[in-house]
Every structure is written in C-alpha cells, then in structure tokens.
Specification:
Length: about 300
C-alpha cells in the first residue's frame, strides 16, 4: 500500500486509551498509550508499557482463591502456590483466565487493535477536541516503538483534522522522525540525563540519539516541551539540571522545560507483573529542592514549570 494511503487495518498493541484528559497537550484530549519501549527506566510508572507484547497482571489482594483461573488455563501457566500466580514464560495471553475471574484479580495489559478500531474510539470525543482546541496525544511506552502503526494512527488523526501531540523518549531513527514530524503539532520529549554514561546506567541506552533527535525536532520547527523526570540520587544534581537547561536553550522550538518530580504511583504494578521495584530506598524530593532546580532552569532564560502546571 502506498505510504500516503491510510491502512485502516494496520494492527498494533495499545495498553490504554484515556478520554477527557486536560494534561499532556492543549484543550480536552484523548491519550492513546502504545505498548513497547526501548528504554528500561527504573522509575517507570507504567511498567506494563515496557514490553511490546501483552502481559498478564495478577492483582493479588483481589484474589479470593477460587481456582477458576487454574481450571481454564490451557498452558499450565497458573501456579496457585506462587505469590505472583502467573508463570509468564508459559502464558500464551489467551485471556481465558481473565474471563472467568469475577474477583478482578487478573488483568491483561495490552490489546491488539486496528487503526480503524482506535479511530472509532477517538471519534467519540471529536466535538470536545473541536470546542476546546484539544486533540489526541500519543504516549507509551514509546510510540516510535510501533512506528508503522503509530504513523497510520497519526495519518488517521490528521485526516480528521485533529491536533496531535506525542510524548516520546526521542529514541528513534532520523529517517522515521522525518516521516512522522509532518503529522505532529506538539512534541513532549524527555531528557533523562546529560551525562552519557549515567544516562545509559539509568535507562539502558546512550543519550546520543536522544540529544541528536532533540536538535532535529527543534530544527523542524514543531513546538517542543522538554521534560526532565527528576529522580533523587539519579539525575537531580544541580550540575545535571544546569547542563540540561544549557542544552535546551539552544533548541529554537522549545517552549518550556518541565520538571517532573519522582513519584511512586506505579509501584504496585511491579507487584502485579511479578517484578522487583528497584527504587524502594528512594524518597520523593522535597518541594524546596524542586523549587531550587526550577530557579536554576529559569536562570538560563527558560520558562520552567513543575509537573507541567
Ligand atoms: S479466578 Fe481470580 S479470584 Fe479465582 S483464584 Fe484465579 S485469580 Fe484468584
Ligand atoms: S492468559 Fe491464558 S495462558 Fe495465560 S495464564 Fe491466563 S489462561 Fe493461562
């Protein structure tokens, strides 16, 4: 199919669609969360977004021990003695256990959808996008991870005349970026650390591609907001924040730098997935220390907000 014709049957994996959001872009928005991310940040508040395939989550405190899941599982992937209940390597994601679990103790993260299915969900709120100056925000995970599906979704949004925003780690190729940017009205992009070695330590990848892509986006003229997830003992030192601000002020299309203080809202999901949460010892930063970092950013002549507000 020619690349400029919408392939409405293209498929991808979505793990959530949130309607009526007033964050993550102007006006009233619907946020589409695509599954899969090349980074592995320990503080990720959506750990179910990291792997590209579906994942079964076990919400232990809801379980009443009825054993129905065990009786229907065709893959021998349920272990009633195991605190995390699911043997992930054996699970084929058939969903049979989720259907019979009336206690709400099992939840499948991720669902395969076509572009047409997503667009029809998005259309439900078209009147709100129009009346509020809102639109659609693509988040993840990392939306570029499913680049072909992502491009088709953006094309579908644009054919409906909707404003599009993306939330990205900035990790993709220049070729893909140049293809996608004409379909995007606003970019939120994370810069997690300016020191390459430390960036690799805390995310699993080098920051070279990320910083280069920030420059490409800035050059394209698409408005951009840079976000720093501020993680105590990882990247919250003054030197790193100043180095980031210094880099960001060289990017012409940046409207603002947002400091996103560390929180633990997604911590319980690590339990549901049977994974360890690595930052148990880290405490959220005080308001005073975040305010000091904000002042440091503003000293570089940049507009700075905390948590995007
Ligand atoms: S079906 Fe649900 S409530 Fe029953 S044992 Fe399985 S997980 Fe627990
Ligand atoms: S999703 Fe299917 S294979 Fe996986 S644990 Fe449930 S019933 Fe078993």
């Amino acid at each position: 199919m020619p690349s400029n014709i919408l392939d409405s049957q293209a498929k991808g994996v979505i793990f959530d669609i949130q309607r009526f959001s007033v964050h993550d872009g102007p006006g009233i928005r619907t946020i589409v969360f695509l599954k899969g991310c090349p980074l592995k940040c320990d503080w990720c508040s959506n750990p179910e977004s990291q792997q590209s395939q579906q994942e079964l989550m076990f919400i232990g405190h809801n379980c009443i021990g009825c054993g129905k899941c065990l009786s229907v599982c065709p893959a021998g992937a349920i272990d009633m003695e195991n605190p995390s209940r699911i043997i992930q390597e054996k699970c084929t994601h058939c969903g049979k256990c989720v259907e019979v679990c009336y206690a709400g103790a099992l939840n499948m993260a991720g669902e395969e959808k076509t572009v047409e299915m997503v667009l029809s969900e998005l259309k439900k709120d078209a009147i709100y996008y129009r009346n509020s100056g809102g639109g659609i925000t693509f988040s993840g995970g990392e939306p570029f991870f499913q680049q072909e599906f992502f491009e088709q979704l953006l094309m579908g949004c644009k054919s409906n005349g909707w404003h599009t925003t993306i939330e990205t780690t900035g990790f993709t190729t220049e070729k893909v970026l140049n293809k996608i940017l004409p379909l995007v009205d606003l970019v939120f992009m994370d810069i997690k650390h300016m020191d390459d070695r430390k960036h690799e330590l805390c995310t699993g990848i080098s920051n070279k591609t990320v910083l280069k892509n920030a420059q490409i986006i800035a050059k394209s003229g698409v408005p951009m907001i840079i976000r720093i997830p501020v993680i105590p003992e990882v990247n919250d030192d003054l030197m790193n924040i100043q180095a980031t601000a210094d880099f960001v002020r060289s990017l012409a299309s940046v409207k603002e730098l947002q400091l996103m203080p560390y929180h633990r809202l997604g911590q319980n999901k690590y339990d549901y997935l049977g994974r360890e949460y690595a930052l148990n010892e880290i405490k959220p930063a005080s308001k005073t220390s975040i305010d000091q970092l904000k002042e440091a950013v503003e000293a570089y002549g940049l507009k700075c907000s905390i948590g995007g507000s």
